[in-house]
Amino acid sequence: MGRADSSSSSGSSVSQTASNTASSTASGSGSSTITSAPSSSGGSSSSASGSASNSNSDSSNTSGSSSGSQTATGTSNGGSSSNTTIYDPRLPAGGVQMVTPAATSGSQYYKVGDQITFGWNFTSLSATPSAVDVFATCTSQAYTYTLASNQSIGSTAVTWDTGAVPTDHPLLTDTYTLIIFDAASGVSATAQAGYLAVFDSFSFGMYTPQPYTPLNDFICATCSAGLSQTERQALGFMLGMAAVTVLSFSWFVGGLGLF
Q: Which residues does 191 contact at the CB level (< 8 Å), separation at least 6?
């Protein structure tokens, strides 16, 4: 009985020492490892160590979450980059200068059925397009004729066979507009500095030839120089009355002896 009490008292002392050691270690930095002597109170020491470990784990998770948020923001900003080149806004937009026909040639009129050649040069281009589209449009019939589609920028002329147009949209005697634009941007693109702007400032006339009419059978519908039969009769009557008036007045004056 005496030995049992002594063993119990010793075990209680060791347990108290381990408990004090665990409390001191848990209240510190939390990074130390607690080593306890084997005793019945080892569960308390293990619990303190686990609490410190959980605290460190929570701190690590918080730091990792913050770092991931910054990485996501960087990726989002990097994905918004663009490859479009922006030139000095003081630069003019690219243009087209007609060569055939020349700007000094005046108004141009072409017969429907003939082949027409248009030639041009590009001006003020900082960004050269890879290809252009060439159209001709007539406002009165709201139709666009394709002269060239996706034509290489190196080719600066096009020949239009006006006899090979759709039968449901024949060419009329009217005024047409030549349109040249970047095939990659479209006919409604807004002009930008350095880039080719839509060219639509050249107009020309088209007419349909009429069958031959002999001169004697020709009647000019809009001419006013010729007189009709009624007009010639009226003019003859006025001249005749003027002659009668002059002769009558001369006879009357002569009969009175005034001359």
A: 93, 197, 198
Q: How far is residue 45's CA from residue 17's CA, in Å, rounded to a whole number?
A: 11
Q: How far apart are the first and last CA of the chain?
A: 194
Rounded to the nearest angstrom, the gap between the alpha carbon of residue 113 and the centroid of all alpha carbons in its chain is: 35
Q: What is the pTM of this model?
A: 0.53
pLDDT of 50 higher than 50: no
Do residues 59 and 74 touch, judged by C-beta distance below 8 A?
A: no
In whole angstroms, give the CA distance from residue 218 to residue 211: 11
pLDDT at residue number 258: 63
Average pLDDT on 209-236 reads 78
CA dist., res. 107 & res. 105, Å (int):
7
Residue 134, token pair as written in the block: 């060439």
Tell me: cis bond preceding 166? Omega within 30 of 0 counts: no
Q: Give the Cα separation of 188 and 202 in Å (integer).
A: 17
